[in-house]
């Protein structure tokens, strides 16, 4: 029944990666509501070393390590991803990014949108946000 005020609201849980950006700009790396996990835009920045790899392929690999770490804190993993929105700064990096994407998601095959976009830092070549549903494995 729509608007049923007697059913409890799903708990909202915030996931942090410990990034200074999350604290400074007041957002979460991921938000969990019920079985849904929404991952914020994630880049290939390596928070442990405070570095960013020079190439799109290496940035994409680190991006997926960052995403996997956030999903793990939420009780999920990359196999639970059902939707990806991808932003690539340079169209010439498409094949490098998609090669890593394909290796990561083969057999999972989430819905995906890819956009060429200017990103906030010219050194960042790729950014993705993802949605997962807990235990929604292919």
Automatic annotation (TrEMBL):
Entries under Gene3D superfamilies matching the protein: RutC-like
Pfam families annotated for this entry? Ribonuc_L-PSP (PF01042)
Instruction: Tell me where on the tree of life, at the top rank, the source sits.
Output: Bacteria
Write down the PANTHER family for this protein, in alphabetical order: BLR7761 PROTEIN, YJGH FAMILY PROTEIN
> What is this protein's record name?
Enamine deaminase RidA, house cleaning of reactive enamine intermediates, YjgF/YER057c/UK114 family
Give the species this sequence originates from: Bosea lathyri
